[in-house]
Design brief:
By secondary structure, the protein is mostly beta strands. It is about 5% helix and about 60% strand. It is a multi-pass membrane protein.
């Protein structure tokens, strides 16, 4: 089948589907293989040629995982800290310290799906948009300095779904596992002379009966259409719908944690709020056109998503009575000139939250004095507040990728974001942490904030020889505060991150590696302050983040390969005055020189994989998090965890494949997160014990 070189999306899908044919075409030795990245530069480029620390989790790596959660794909990337409370779509994600302030969810990191931002203009990200069974590859660009990351200093993660033009993605899958785990997935598509159509349906569920209040289920469907308008123009569109129900378990005190370590079960939480969760419905539409005219390429994109959620959290229950609307466009153009590529564009997005409300919990147990001891359900009670809000983001970006010689690439880029946020709230009741009761609210309040965030970058890549590339980068990016943070503290400033980085990348037929060293200073970093149960946000004066990251793999022959990753992180407060509640008053405590909590000094892991020509394959990986401080005051440490081991064993023959995944093979009992608030209270969030899942996949041909 002929594929016009101008239809790059179609060609890329076909090339990805037949890697063996591509490698054997010359009839000689296998070439040096490298993943392709577009997230860091908006230009298709081998990862070795990208002058930034990036990671690509490709199709082959994803196939070995059950892929219930993004954690499974990202947990072996140095500098990326990720875990999940229930193995569903929730995740706490931190990249080089960015995202640390988020008690729940993802902030400070831009997450995209096929070029569409899943992060709101105020940086909060929802992963219930993503069907993890329909992922082709995932790209991770760390730190400031890429053109996709609007108002985000932590970097960008882009999820690419399987192309509508890729018929090799057609399959039926069914899986069953421990803890009530079930997975059903069907993808079928057809490709004609000019049109392609694909339908996808997925249902995932986990009872997680090792812990109370921890069930998860989601049902997702999508319809994709591809249209080859001409030999130079391709239009791809997708409409998808998802429903997700997720119970979020509470943390434990020391007594409950010791019981969990003995039994492997968590029967209760020490927190009063025992019925947190998020129940959502999401519509997602994306349409993107690629047009080529000689050396010019134009890529307009339009997207629309709307969602509803019912979200019980600490103290109150959130609900969007009217669906939230997020509308946006990205108009990108590129010019391939004699010495490189010039990429530029404009972005505009608006999110409207027309009727967001908060309720008191209806069913609670109280002390004789009226303090709430425990919730009994997630049912809503009396109305606590109403609000309307909107966020508008507009941006321009431009980057010249200049190639002054065959060994050099120079990326000089600039992005400028303007984010305007408005909120009107009528607080009727609020939960008072000091008394443990619902009390009269503060009434009507209106907040308007505008942030202007310039993000320049200069990066250089030099090919030392056929196997080794050197790179250096300096970049700056601003971080927009979330609407919840601004509601907590309207005086918050936008943090500014400045990063200097050097690295080396190696690619060969039998080995590959990435190594980088960076130094990031953050002015006005937003940190989470918890004074006896009250979560507030404040600007730290300045933080210094220094780190080294290494990853690599080596082909031993005989079907075996080994590899590993390591990250060393040294994050300290240069100047920070933390407000601490003492009695009935708040006193500022100097934390200058202290280490940021939760981020381990050492994070590392190793793996060994094996593939046989007969169709068998296996992979064993061990992961480690070193010790870390529990609080800003640096009064106590958690030891972290050692050698949590994951195993994958599979067999493939013709159209059939069978895969056994065992996570936490040796059933270690540990906490993936331990925190200590300013009042001295320590809480533990349990990691999942051993989980086993068997998956059968049938590939349509």
């Amino acid at each position: 089948m002929y594929c016009s070189p101008k239809i790059s999306l179609v060609c890329l899908a076909i090339a990805a589907a037949f890697p063996a044919a591509a490698s054997d075409a010359a009839g000689g030795e296998a070439p040096i293989l490298d993943e392709i990245s577009v997230t860091a530069t908006r230009e298709e480029r081998k990862t070795a040629d990208v002058p930034q620390a990036i990671a690509v989790v490709g199709k082959e790596a994803l196939a070995e995982k059950k892929m219930f959660n993004m954690k499974e794909a990202l947990q072996e990337i140095p500098g990326v800290l990720i875990d999940s409370k229930n193995g569903g779509f929730d995740a706490r994600l931190i990249i080089r310290g960015a995202g640390l302030k988020a008690a729940y969810g993802i902030r400070e990191i831009m997450v995209l799906r096929d070029g569409v931002p899943l992060s709101d203009p105020d940086s909060f990200t929802r992963l219930d948009f993503v069907d993890t069974q329909d992922i082709e590859r995932i790209e991770v660009a760390k730190g400031p300095g890429n053109l996709f990351a609007s108002g985000s200093a932590g970097g960008a993660i882009q999820v690419f779904s399987k192309s509508v033009f890729d018929t090799t993605a057609n399959n039926a899958k069914v899986g069953f596992g421990t803890d009530g785990t079930e997975n059903y997935h069907l993808r079928h598509g057809i490709v004609g002379e000019r049109h392609a159509l694909a339908v996808t349906a997925t249902h995932r569920k986990m009872d997680n009966d090792w812990r109370s209040w921890n069930a998860f289920d989601t049902t997702q469907t999508s319809l994709k259409h591809g249209w080859i308008l001409t030999e130079q123009d391709v239009l791809e569109s997708e409409l998808s719908y998802a429903e997700a129900n997720m119970q979020l378990p509470g943390a434990m005190d020391q007594t409950l944690f010791e019981s969990f370590k003995r039994t492997g079960e968590q029967e209760d939480t020490s927190e009063a709020w025992k019925n947190s969760g998020r129940y959502s419905k999401v519509w997602f539409f994306n349409s993107r056109l690629e047009m080529e005219r000689g050396d010019f390429t134009f890529k307009p994109r339009f997207y629309y998503n709307t969602w509803y959620h019912y979200h019980p959290v600490t103290g109150l229950i959130n609900e969007t009575r009217d669906w939230v609307v997020n509308l946006g466009t990205d108009l990108e153009a590129s010019w391939n000139h004699g010495n490189g590529t010039l990429v530029g564009g404009v972005t505009a997005r608006k999110e409207e939250v027309p009727d967001s409300v908060k309720y008191q919990y209806r069913d609670v147990l109280t002390t004789p004095g009226g303090r709430i001891r425990s919730t009994l359900s997630d049912a809503k009670g009396e109305l606590a507040s109403t609000s309307t809000s909107s966020s508008v983001l507009s941006a321009v970006y431009l980057q010249e990728s200049w190639r002054p010689g065959p060994r050099w690439i120079v990326d000089a880029g600039f992005r400028y974001d303007v984010i305007r946020m408005e909120d009107e709230t009528n607080e009727i009741k609020r939960y008072d942490y000091a008394s443990g009761k619902y009390v009269a609210g503060d009434g009507f309040a209106k907040t308007e904030k505008t942030f202007r965030l310039p993000a320049p970058k200069l990066a250089v890549s030099y090919r030392l020889n056929d196997a080794i590339n050197l790179f250096a980068m300096v970049a700056q990016a601003g971080q927009v505060p979330s609407s919840g943070e601004i509601s907590s503290n309207p005086d918050l400033d936008a943090p500014v991150s400045r990063n200097v980085e050097f690295g080396i990348k190696g690619r060969s037929r039998d080995w590959q590696f990435d190594a980088s060293a960076y130094s990031t200073t953050v002015e006005d970093e937003i940190v989470q302050v918890n004074t006896g149960g009250v979560t507030e946000y404040a600007n730290a004066g300045k933080t210094d983040k220094k780190g080294v990251e290494l990853s690599g793999s080596f082909n031993l022959g005989g079907g075996f390969d080994v590899g590993g990753h390591y990250a060393w992180s040294d994050y300290t407060y240069d100047s920070f005055s933390e407000p601490v509640r003492v009695g009935g008053s708040v006193v500022n405590q100097d934390r200058s020189g202290n280490t940021l909590p939760f981020v381990p000094r050492h994070q590392y892991g190793v793996f060994i994989g094996w593939k046989s020509a007969s169709g068998w394959h296996a992979r064993l990986a061990g992961l480690n998090w070193g010790e870390y401080w529990l609080d800003n005051a640096n009064t106590e440490k958690y030891d972290g965890w050692d050698w949590v081991t994951n195993l994958s064993v599979g067999y493939e023959r013709d159209q059939h494949s069978l895969t056994l995944n065992v996570d936490n093979l040796f059933d270690k009992r540990y906490a993936f997160e331990v925190k200590k608030d300013a009042s001295g209270k320590v809480t533990y969030t349990a990691a999942s014990p051993r989980q086993v899942m068997l998956t059968y996949r049938y590939a349509f041909r």
